[in-house]
Each structure stands twice: as C-alpha cells, then as structure tokens.
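Issue: ligand-bound run for magnesium ion - logging full I/O for the record.

Environment: standard queue, default settings, no custom constraints.

Inputs:
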Amino acid sequence: MSETGGKSVALIRGNAEYQEASLEPSATIMKVWKKVHNDMRSEFGEAIFRSWLKPLKLQAFYHGTMEVSVPTRFMRDWIQNHYAERILAMCVEESANGEEEVKRLQIVVVQNAIVEDDAEQDAPTKANQNQKIDVSEISSPLDERFTFDSFVVGKPNALAHAAARRVVESAAIPFNPLFIYGGVGLGKTHLMHAIAHAIEEQTPEKTVMYLSAEKFMYQFVKALRNDSTMTFKEQFRSVDVLMIDDIQFIAGKESTQEEFFHTFNALVDQNKQIIISADKAPGDLNGLDERLRSRLAWGLVADIHPTTYDLRLGILQTKRELLGADVPDSVLEFLALKVTSNIRELEGALNRIVAHADVSRQEITLENTQEVLQDLLRAHDRRITIDEIQRKVAEHYNLRMADMHSARRARNVARPRQVAMYLAKQLTARSLPEIGRKFGGRDHTTVMHAVRKVEELMEDDAQIAQDVDVIRRALTG
Ligand code: ADP
Ligand code: MG
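Outputs:
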C-alpha cells in the first residue's frame, strides 16, 4: 500500500463496516500530514511515537475530515483516547490558512496496513478477529505434570488454589488480575500451568498465553530491535488469558514495565483474564512503577505460605504414588520433618532416594535415606542455630534467654529448656556435648535425657506435641 493510500482499500470503520474508499488527498493535505506525522516524534516522545504513532497512514481527505489508518482496532481505540485530540490540533494548526483546512480527524482500521509497501497484498480476508491466533512462538511450553490433579492442597496454599479454580470455573472473570505470590518452590508455577491446562481443556477455542516475565521482556526487546512492536502488541492483545510468571523480574526494567502496563490495561479493558505470579506481594515489589503496583493489586491477591508438616507429608504421599515406589511411611515422615525449605527440594530429596534405591538395588530405609541425603540434611541443619532455637523457645514460653542457660530447675523453666535441647538435637547437626555446652555448660547425658523425655512426652501430652510443632514451624518456615 502506498503512503497516501491512493489505491482502493477495504476499510473497517467502527464495527466492521466495509467500504471502498478512493478519496485521494490533495498534495497540500499530504504535505500537512507529512509535517504533522513527523512532528509527532517531538510532540509525544520517541517511545510513544514508535509504539503507537509511527504506523499511522493518511488514507483520505473529505470535507475537512482527515482520515488516517492504523493496523488494528486496539491501536485505533488507544490512539483515539490518548493522542487524537492533540494530533487533530496539530493538523488544524498546520493547515490553517492553507488551501484546505483540517477540521476533523478520523482514525480507521486498515488491517493490512501492517504490511508496509506491499502492493501485492490481498484485501484483508484472513484477519478474522475471532480466529484463534498462534501464540506458540511466544507462549512457553506447559509442564504436563503440573495439573490440578497433582496439586496437593493444604492450609498454606488453599487460598491460591481456590482462586485458581475460580478462574477456571467461572463463566465471567471473577477477579482481574489474579495475583499469586509466595517464596521459591512453593507451587506458583505449578498452579499457573494447572490453570492453563484446565482452560485449554474446557475451552479450547480460548487463546492462553503463558510466559515468564523474563521471556516477556526478551520478546519485547526483540520486537523493538526488529521494528515489529506492532505485531508484538497485537499478539499480546489478542489473547483471552495472559499469564506472566515471576513478574518481579521486570523490576527496574522501565520500558518493559511500561509496555507490560499498556498490555495489562488493554486486556483488562477488553475484559480478558490476567494471572500474575511473583515472589512478593504487589506492594513489596521494589523497582516496580507505583501505577503498576497498585494496578496489580486490583484483583485478588493470594499468597502461598511456607509449607507445613502436613502439606509436606501429603505431597510426599502423592509423589510416592506417582512414582510407584516402595517408600516406607517412616521415611516420608522423616523427609517431611527435615526438608522444610520448599517443595522443590522436598521432591528432589524423594527422587534422590528412589533413584538411589533403584541403582543400588537396596530397599529404602530410614538409615540409607539419612546416608543418601547427608549433604542436603546438613545444609538444612546449618540454617538453624542453637541460639535461634533458644530464643524461639523462650519467646514461646514467655521466658528470658537467660533461663535457657540458668541452673534453675523449676518445672516451668526446666521443661522448656528440655524442649529447646530436643529441638537443637533435631534441627541442628550439633553433637550432644556441643548442645550441652550451649545450655549453660550442661553434661551430654543431661541433653540425652532431655531428648528422650520430650520424645516421651510428645507421645502422650498433646500440649507438648503442639508446642514443639509450633516452635519447629516458626524455626523452619
Ligand atoms: P514456584 O513456581 O513457586 O517456585 P513450582 O510451582 O515450580 O514453584 O513448584 C516446585 C515443585 O514443587 C514443582 O515440581 C511442583 O510440582 C511441586 N509442587 C509445588 N506445590 C505443590 C503442591 N501443592 N502439590 C504438589 N506438588 C507441588
Ligand atoms: Mg516458578
């Protein structure tokens, strides 16, 4: 198509009203447009010009109406709402006192305008708005294993899971965006893939785009470099569901944020579902533009908490079934107790002992589990110090730190001290004498006695068992 649109082109006005147009603008108007179009760079800035205004083309001029085209409906609306008034003012000014004066500005959609200077291009027949577009190049592949079926629900992830289900099951959009956040390896990506799988299963005609924020940035930068931001915008804006994983990645990346913000707004305006994950709550995402942060919190913000013992055990049981491996309950319990950092590591630990048993043709026992996972367990134990344990225990029982070291034997002090010794034995790699020294220079036999005593008590005193569990969670969570 030529710059002036002199040829007959199929125009889509408003709601797909087709019309043949051949109202060729005069040389004067063409000159006005050329000047104005050029001035837009300085008027609106280079970034806006490149993303929005560059593709504007003069199509026709009739009775004071300057008709310019853009390749997509979305762009037309956006320009209409944001820049049209100023563009018209520029045209009016530029054409004032000339042969022909511009009085109105009409922005129309010419779908093949995106293919520049391609006179051979057929009329836009294939550009069917309802057609499912191909996003496979941008979208990241989904992990087959990450489904709702394989997602174990527990207290820490119940809210996020319920929200994810709502998104899948609601006919209308229940909240926009759905913002899921939580620490590493707690199931954010798993949940997002589960949503994508479920939507694709239920409504295959919907276009679901899933990608990491990192990939979003990569695609955006690539589009900038190839001068194909139009295609980029159009691709993102034509999806039904957009999922961006690990949004924290674009913190500090200003132009990517800007682009994402526009995409986000465009999709929300079109009532399309957006799902975002991050490692922090929207308000805590440093390096993210304030507008974007507040926009992210508009819908439902669901956090995934650190795992609990119960959830860890549940996941291990599910995983055991999936693996079809012969793993004793005691081993699962041991892992649930020891590997508390996140679910990824927990799974990794189970996979390792299963693989080891396979290769060595040994049965899985508690002993060889401890052996196989030695390094991992030690790494874990190192994270918790006896000081921390003493502090937490003191806090829990309303004691002073000094009570942990003191010689006082009153039950209300001695019992918590024993609990602290027990936890020190459980959660650290310290030897009994080392632990004894940390408790005011006590003998290793005292520590051993304390450990046995607490183990015994936990069996038949629910209160103690609960105390220990609460403190352990506080320390390991
Ligand atoms: P994140 O994206 O939060 O870092 P992932 O979604 O990648 O975490 O989860 C890490 C691993 O833990 C994955 O293998 C995932 O399948 C598993 N996982 C996480 N949460 C659960 C859960 N509730 N039930 C079963 N597996 C889970
Ligand atoms: Mg993830």
